Amino acid sequence: MIRELIKPVDNTYILNLPDEMIGKTVEVIAFEVENVDKLTEVSNPQTIHDIRERYSHYPVISHENYRFNRDEANDYE
Question: Distance between CA atoms of 20 and 63, rounded to whole angstroms?
């Protein structure tokens, strides 16, 4: 998904699509946005530091030594 907020200075805009979208049907919608401040607050990407800080109070879980036992999973009795 691509989302860009722009202020056009001309009636032409060039959009570069990622390679994953080549050959697929893509919908392009353009409409006027009234309140840009609220939209940019939500759409700004967070830094790694912000993400780590947000999730630091959750326990760290490792599945390194986990082994799936199919017999145990299919044991219904």
Answer: 31
- Residue 48's φ and ψ, nearest 5 degrees, are -60, -40
50 within a domain of the structure (yes/no):
yes
Residue 34 within a domain: yes
Which segments of 2-76 does DSSP mark as H helices, in order?
Answer: 36-43, 48-55, 70-73
Nearest alpha carbon to residue 36 among 14, 8, 10, 6: 6
CA–CA distance, 16 with 10 (Å, rounded to integer): 17
Provide the domain limits for residue 46: 27-58
| pLDDT band (50, 70, 90) for residue 3 | confident
* pTM flag (> 0.85): no
